Amino acid sequence: MSTRTRRLAPAVLLVLLWALPGRAAERRIVDLRPLWDTQRVLKNPGKGWYHHLLDNGVERYAIRDEAAFRSFPGMDHLYLRLAWSYLEPREGHYDWHWIDDVVARYVPLGYGIAFRITSKETGAAPAVVRQERDGVQYATPVWVEDAGARGVVSEAWGVRSWTPDWDDPVYLEKLDAFLQAFAARYDGQPWVRYVDVGSIGEWGEGHTSFSTRVPPTVAEVKASIDAYARHIRESQLVCTDDLLYYGKREEEVSALLEYAVGKGLTLRDDSPLVDWYLKNHLETWTVSHPRFYDPLYLKRPIVLELEHYASVKNDGNWRGRNGAEILPEYGVSGADVMRKAVELLHASYIGFHGYADEWLADNPDLTAELANRCGYWYFPESLSVPSSLSTGENEIGVTWLNEGVAPAYEPFPVEFRLEGPSTRGPVHLGTLDSGNLGWRPGEPVEQPYRVVVPPSAEPGAYHLQVRLSLRGRTVAIGLKPKATDPNGYSTLGRVLVE
After folding, report:
1. Quick check: pTM over 0.90?
2. Across the chain, what does the average pLDDT equal?
3. Domain co-membership, 104 together with 185
4. Which residues of 385-394 are buried (b: 16+ CB within 10 A; e: fewer)?
């Protein structure tokens, strides 16, 4: 569409699409921007907020207020970070209830689940790890050491914990067997959003800053990636960017990034608004390695994990309602940093790392804003149609604009139908490839569609309606509620069928 056409006054462009006798080849343009709703939160598949649950053990970040959680705008999934010792306390004897209880409660309500199973934590039993021996805490089950796996004991914050040697053959053998059992139960479940590679480093983050301080080698990182990729074959695999760069030379970092991406992994960044990153990486909005994510975001969803919300506030890096108060030391607000990190990472999933009721009470407007901005956010800019439709094939065009920060990663079929005088109900014009995989952020795309008006369609004036969907679920678009019916069909304009 030309720039001149896009700038025409809405009052001129909002014409009724009536047929003009003898001029069926002429087309009409309808400006759909006056129908836009940029405030209403659209809860759509493949994007949104997530809530840390069972994080740092089985007690922290429990959902304290069910009503607040269920009203949380754009909440997509729960993120479960659990020590391996909870799930396999004895070799070959699995205790899945920590996961299954959450699944049974929240999946029927429409929420998904994501996982990180860790081999090293810094807290103590019984809340953070399940097993303790002689005052030493075990995130990796104690029986793995008893089977001959090598490891070391280190202390952080007054807690002594066992860290396995990441390349120990016994450790890798037992990890592989666990992942096989885990995958048999959960891989490919429709409610699984992703599975983190959590088998190296503190809290599964890939670094050893609070234990050995010895960076895992390239071979050790590859061995853990291989173990996950061998068994998690249907669900999306994720790793933290720390796993790829911590203690590595630049050529090693590049090699590991290529290796992880080649194995089908996507990335998450756990550093946004961490105090150290604010002090050292404000120029990239606390994102330490922005090059990792572009062009990866064009192929796979990116995950953002905010620093623990309580820590961000205690550090003085989040002030005022919606985090909008300027931080004197940095000249920007905490919310600005988070917004820019979401944009720079092109994040589809974003987490606040705290209690849902507290975050929502403090940040109601920012929550809604970022629920829409993360991932994709579709708006139809304009409609181009013949002045009248005839039975048989007709070409219509919709110019789409993605106002989110990322593309979608699955194709959304588009359905067109006519709603009008027919006594036999809506007239279906076909289900087509919407072309949405090509709708990149901020780039209007004029998408042509060939629809078929069946001979049975009665002549007369109709509403032209459209719906995007994914496996039967409507993909909501940014139009006012009055433009969309309860079945998810949005009215774009009126047409005449001859």
Report:
1. yes
2. 93
3. yes
4. bbbbbeeeeb
